[in-house]
Amino acid sequence: MQSPNHQITKSPNSKIWILLEMIKFEHTILALPFAYLGAFLAAEGPPDLWTSLWILVAMIGARTAAMAFNRIVDIPFDSKNPRTNERALPKGTVKARDAWIMVIVASGIYFLAAYELNRLAFLVSPIFLAVVLSYSYTKRFTSLCHLFLGLALSLAPTAGWIAVKGGVEYLPLILSTGVLFWVAGFDVLYGCLDYDFDRKQGLHSIPARWGIKKAFRISGIFHFVAFIALVSVGLLAHLNWIYYCGLLATFALLVMQRLVVNPKDLSRMNMAFFTFNGAISIILFTATAISLIWKV
Hints:
The protein is an all-alpha fold. The protein has a single domain (13-293), classed as UbiA prenyltransferase (Tetracycline Repressor, domain 2, Orthogonal Bundle). It has helices spanning 4-10, 12-22, 32-43, 49-73, 75-78, 88-91, 96-117, 119-138, 145-165, 170-191, 195-201, 206-210, 212-236, 241-260, 269-293.
């Protein structure tokens, strides 16, 4: 006789929840505000409801496909890493086949959303998805993998701009540059958790190549570049003081991030990574949206 817990584990609904947990679906919040930030800047205010909904669908589809794909290709390493060997795929809670189905379905949803937005969005959608998926392999051959992750997430604001305008200008590219270095900066810090494992397995990262102390310094340089790019966005878009208040709050959170974790104490990295960075993306979007809507 099967126990109730065993029955729940085998149920379809349980498998869906496990898959969503596997890809950390709730962390979509890190990228989604930047897609809408690009869309709001393109529309100089809130885009229409139809466009907003398809941007949401596209972002969920792209991120879901990317995370599921990343989990699949990293199975050989995740199964050996003490930090990740309890994840669903290496543990065998779900099969790789289920994850592949997730990648295919999510990619289809993403392409459908791009098609519904406009011609250029659909034409560039395979390129954008290829960039997002290819990040999963970069740690195998370059310590610049953090910049590749930054590039993948930095497509969000440019994609949001394209969704509204059907074209590309300098402003979203500068915004994307800011996102690229912001993401790369915090990913360098997060990579410190795998310093010993990466060196042992021959994987590449800035911490593995340069050491944890230098990695913190490089992360700081990346975040400085990101901050300059975000200031430039405010100037080029003629945003008001509300946006710059948001930037100051962002700067404060980046400083706090380095007070919470340091080269000698990485124990609170998860809080610094997810809590602070989630707050930063929301604050920047909110400050930009209010600045555009409430022209003071």
